[in-house]
Design a protein that fits this description.
- This protein is α+β, with helices and mostly antiparallel strands and 235 residues long.
- The protein has five helices and eleven strands; from the N terminus they run H-E-E-E-E-E-E-H-H-E-E-H-E-E-E-H.
- The chain is globular and about 50 Å long.
- The N and C termini lie far apart (69 Å).
- 29% of the residues are buried.
Length: 235
C-alpha cells in the first residue's frame, strides 16, 4: 500500500513537472518569434452557419517588426479595415481614404468606431499567443503541438467586444474554449483557439462560437510597409 502511494505521488510530480516544462518550452518559442526581425501572418476565423452569428470576419493579413511596428488589413462583412500600430499608438484607414488616430474614433459611429476599438486592443501573434498560454489551464505536448483547455475568465476576455482598462466588458454565460499551438525549429509557427458562450451586449443575448487560426510565415523576410500618413498618426 505504501509503495503504491509513493508511486502515485511520483507520477503526480512527474506530470506536474512535465506540464511546467511544456509551458516553459512554449513560452520560449513565443519569445523567439517576438525576437525575430520581422514576420507575417494570416488569420482565418470560422463560425458555424447554425450559430446565427452576425459578426463574420474575412481573412486577416498582417506584418510585424521587432521594434513594434504592425500593419494589418482585414475584411468584416462588406467593410475593409486597415490598421497600423506601434506600441500604444494606433491608426485606422477611414472609409474616406484618410488615416485617423484610433483615439479620434472613440465617439465615431458605425464601422469606424469598431475599427478604432479593435486597433487599440490589437495584439500581434506573439502577444496573442502569449496571452493564450496565460489563459490555458494546463498544456500538454504531443510532438510539435501543445494543447489545453482555456479558463472561463480567459474565454470571457477573448469573447468580449470591449477590452482594455476602464472598459465595461459584456456579460458572458457558459464560456468554454481550448487552444492548440505549434512550434517548428524552436519558434512558434501556428496556433488555433476555439471559444464559445452566450454574450449579453446592449440587452441582447448573442450566441458566440468561433475558431481562430493563425499561420505565421516569412519570418525574417517580411517588409512592413505603412503609408507615411499613417506613420504620422503613430508619432
Amino acid at each position: 500500500m505504501r509503495t503504491s502511494l509513493f508511486c502515485l505521488l511520483g507520477l503526480a510530480t512527474a506530470v506536474s513537472v512535465s506540464a511546467a516544462d511544456s509551458k516553459a518550452d512554449l513560452e520560449k518559442a513565443i519569445k523567439d518569434l517576438a525576437g525575430k526581425a520581422n514576420y507575417s501572418w494570416k488569420t482565418t476565423v470560422t463560425v458555424p452557419e447554425s450559430s446565427g452569428n452576425r459578426f463574420r470576419m474575412g481573412p486577416t493579413e498582417g506584418q510585424a517588426e521587432k521594434d513594434g511596428l504592425v500593419h494589418v488589413s482585414m475584411t468584416m462583412g462588406e467593410n475593409k479595415i486597415e490598421m497600423a500600430i506601434q506600441g500604444k499608438k494606433a491608426a485606422v484607414l477611414g472609409q474616406d481614404g484618410t488615416w485617423q488616430a484610433a483615439e479620434e474614433l472613440s465617439n465615431a459611429e458605425g464601422p469606424g468606431r469598431f475599427a478604432g476599438m479593435m486597433a487599440r486592443n490589437f495584439k500581434a501573434p506573439a502577444g496573442q499567443a502569449g496571452e493564450l498560454v496565460g489563459f490555458a489551464k494546463e498544456l500538454k505536448q504531443d510532438g510539435d503541438a501543445y494543447t489545453g483547455d482555456l479558463t472561463e475568465d480567459g474565454v470571457k476576455q477573448l469573447l468580449s467586444f470591449r477590452r482594455g482598462a476602464g472598459a465595461e466588458a459584456p456579460a458572458v454565460a457558459n464560456p468554454k474554449g481550448n487552444a492548440k499551438l505549434w512550434v517548428k525549429d524552436g519558434t512558434l509557427s501556428k496556433y488555433e483557439f476555439h471559444v464559445e458562450g452566450t454574450v449579453t451586449f446592449n440587452g441582447n443575448d448573442i450566441q458566440m462560437n468561433r475558431t481562430t487560426t493563425v499561420e505565421i510565415k516569412d519570418v525574417g523576410t517580411t517588409k512592413v510597409q505603412v503609408p507615411e500618413e499613417a506613420k504620422k498618426k503613430l508619432s
